[in-house]
Amino acid sequence: MPDVPIRAVIFDLDGVLTDTAEFHYRAWQELADAEGLPFDRQANEALRGVSRADSLRLVLAGREVDEATFARMMAEKNERYVELLADMSPDDLLPGALELVEACRDRGLKLAIGSSSKNAPMVLDALEITDRFDAIADGSTVEVAKPAPDLFLAAARSLDVEPATCAVVEDAEAGVDAALAAGMLAVGIGPAERVGHAHLRYPSTADVDLETILARGA
Ligand code: B16
Ligand code: MG
Q1: pTM for the complete prediction?
Q2: Of all protein residues, whose CA lies closest to atom 16 belonging to ligand 1?
Q3: I want to staple 149 with a disulfide (CB 3.0 to 4.6 A). Which of 100, 126, 181, 183 is the partner?
Q4: Domain locations in the chain as residue ranges
């Protein structure tokens, strides 16, 4: 990691600013049950931060389906997921999330969202935090999903900053992989088994210490 000052922070959404993982899980479980596919909470863990299409491939676990069936299954899962999001409000921000975003803004950092979710703009609106960010890169921004670096590189381009000056806050193994591949400072949220390969790691968003992040990049 080159010693360059951090000028921007790219936030993952699901699992860092809000916890939609339970809704994703319920929507996948209902689809799996309807299709007679074996699936449970443990299998769901592998889907964290993974795009919708890659998630369905994991749910199918090698079972072949034609293109139309694949598209229908993705649509059904998303329809259910969006239904479950209906009651989302600022109360669904994770503890410490808004405080961290505000602290970044107070330090003059540029802020972006780098989420694999195509529903990210809707979730940000429901949380009433869209206006806090200078750029939003989501599941519709790039072709190649995390763990490829493309999404975070697109966020850095939108912010007009060099990748090495960005810190990425991520809860998923695939997201930390993507941040490292982008040459950014990776800040992992969660257990070491999942995000232990990040440069810095905190158990939860509320534990993140911005000064340590900034000192690390300086
Ligand atoms: P959608 P993140 C990810 O969001 C979720 O963690 C992951 O579970 C989901 O499959 C993915 O977005 C795609 O979401 O189906 O809404 O497009 O963690 O990158 O903010
Ligand atoms: Mg996430």
Answers
A1: 0.94
A2: 117
A3: 181
A4: 8-18+90-217, 21-85
